[in-house]
Amino acid sequence: MRRRTPDRLCAEAVELAREAAEEAAWPGKPGDYLGATADDDRVVTHFFECHDPGYRGWRWAVTVARASRARTVTLDETVLLPGPGSLLPPEWVPWSERLRPGDLGPGDLLPTEPEDLRLEPGYTGEDEPPPNSVLADERATPAPLPPADT
């Protein structure tokens, strides 16, 4: 596919594109100008950074166009598009490294690390059935004695 040369008037309409991106991004603001691509004859898309924390790596795309033999550039559309790598999740961080002050409240318990030297083996109750369960009742009831031979 051959590369198109952007229309000069459409490529120079950066301020028109920025105004449209500012209106679409309100109350935020679009970031730096990233460049433009020619989509067709007299149709150019301008790209701006998006600073919204929920859209990391996305960019504002503003398409402008002009009619044949017209000198006026008009706004076609303004959209938010994913940039390269924006749809990939961030690097995984274990929960123990993600915890920040304020993440835990009273009564919250954290699992211990398997090799925690401060801990000693002790009674955990894992072998005991839950109280008031059928298994606990069976353990509490003594087994009947076999009849004695006389």
Automatic annotation (TrEMBL):
* Pfam families assigned to the protein according to its UniProt record, in alphabetical order: DUF3027
Residues of the region (Disordered) are 81-150
List the protein's name.
DUF3027 domain-containing protein
Q: Which InterPro entries match?
A: DUF3027
User: Where does this protein have compositionally biased stretches of type Low complexity?
Assistant: 81-90, 102-111
